[in-house]
Amino acid sequence: MASRGGGQSNHYKYLFDPAANENAIHEDLYNYLVGILGDRAEYEVSHVGGGRVDIRLKFDKFALHIEMKVDSTHLPMEDRTAYLKQAATYQGNDIRIGFLVALRHKAFDPTGPPPHIKALITHTAFPIDGDPVPRHMLLVAIPGSRTIPSHSR
Hints:
By secondary structure, this protein is α/β, with parallel strands linked by helices. It is about 20% helix and about 35% strand. It is built from four helices and six strands; from the N terminus they run H-H-E-E-E-H-E-H-E-E. The protein has a six-stranded mixed β-sheet, with helices on both faces. The longest helix is centred in the first third of the chain and has 16 residues, at about 20-35. The radius of gyration is 16 Å and the shape is globular.
């Protein structure tokens, strides 16, 4: 996250492109995780929670699931109920911890500096009807549509 937050526009073009789609951030995160975890990182895994999860990180006794989104709203990630429901669904047969990572095109002022990294990573507990234990979601907001610092107004 820190390398992307400080990355230049010529290296991480999608961070500065208002038309960047989910594939750009998905590919970048997947390639980064493969570099660290090798074949523990899996891309577009089918038959998880009745659907297909963007990235699965396999470990000996559990897996972590990462749902990726591109979001063009000002809503806090905690209020993106459809995204949270989708990400929580992938935890139905595994541990109750998952990730929702979103490239946020309009959540932050693109003409100024992005928020500090600590403000971009949050947690929410997501209750599920009929389940006494909530799902836990780590929310990672990636500022998108950024301005090159020397072009700040």
